[in-house]
Amino acid sequence: MNAGVIAVQGDVAEHAAAIRRAAAAHDEPVEVVEIRDSGVVPDCDVLLMPGGESTTISRLIHREGIAAEIRDHVAAGKPVLATCAGLIVCSRDAKDDRVDALGVLDVSVDRNAFGRQKDSFEAKVPVEGLEEPFHAVFIRAPAIDDVGSGVEVLASVDGRPVTVRDGPVVATSFHPELTDDSRIHDLAFFPDTEVLA
């Protein structure tokens, strides 16, 4: 498996470590590559869109020619895991003119819906497909405020969706890479296996 981490900004090393843990749990060899330039995404089997600052990520992936390659990746049915700012960038509507959203995830988002940095929190979140709740870390987290008809809501907090699946794209408002639990990465990249306990 070739796993690409969009590395223009955000939690790159943490996502690389998480996908390595997930792949090891499935005895799946994985090559992780950090993507900062165009021409790399087409060789990737799976992509990770990290958290960070959505306006910066959006600007850089368009400037470097990566945005169109991500759209092609999704159109080909290849998996993507987008977290926090990655969710915002992948959405159809970021409700912010500074974010040129990719439109590969049929949701609109409310940026910083759960508050600013000082309002960060952690919670045990039941996620569809996981046997036990996931210890989720919310940092300046967005909430999904509108979901398209083809989007499956996998988890909510206070009635607001925080984990969704839209075809090959799984997105979370929280940061699964900041824990040692790789089950969200399992859900995105190994959905038909039994290592989800």
Describe this structure as you would to a colleague.
By secondary structure, the chain is α/β, with parallel strands linked by helices. The chain has one domain (2-189): Rossmann fold (3-Layer(aba) Sandwich), CATH 3.40.50. 24% of the residues lie in helices and 30% in strands. The chain contains five helices and twelve strands. It has helices at residues 12-25, 54-63, 66-75, 85-90, 183-189; strands spanning 2-6, 31-35, 46-49, 80-83, 91-93, 105-110, 121-125, 134-138, 143-147, 152-157, 160-166, 169-172. The strands form three sheets. The chain has a seven-stranded mixed sheet, with helices on both faces. Strand 7 and strand 8 form a beta hairpin. It is globular and about 40 Å long. The two termini are 22 Å apart.
